[in-house]
Amino acid sequence: MTIRKTLSVVLVSAATSLASFWGFSEYQQQKFAGLNTPATSSIFRNAAYGESSVSSPMVDFEAAATKAAPAVVHIKTLKKAKKVAATPDMRNNPFREFFGDGFGDMFGDQGGSMGRVPDQRASGSGVTISEDGYIVTNNHVIDGADEVLVTLNNKKDYKAKVIGKDPSTDLAVLKIEGNKFPYLTFANSDNVHLGQWVLAIGYPLNLETTVTSGIVSAKARSLGINSRQSKTPVESFIQTDAAVNPGNSGGALVNTDGNVIGINSAIASPTGSYAGYAYAIPSNLVQKVVNDIVKYGSTKRAYLGVMFGSDQMSEEDRKNNNVKEGEGVYMMDVAKGSAAEEAGIQKGDFITKLNDVTVNTGTEMVGRIAALRPGDKVSLTYERNGSVKTGTATLKGDAGTYASVSEQVIEQLGASFENLDKSKAAQLNINSGVVVKGLGQGILTEQTRIREGFVITRVNDTNVNSVEELKAALKRAGNSAVISGIYPNQPQREYQYALNDLNSVE
Question: Which residues are catalytic?
Answer without folding.
Answer: 140, 170, 249
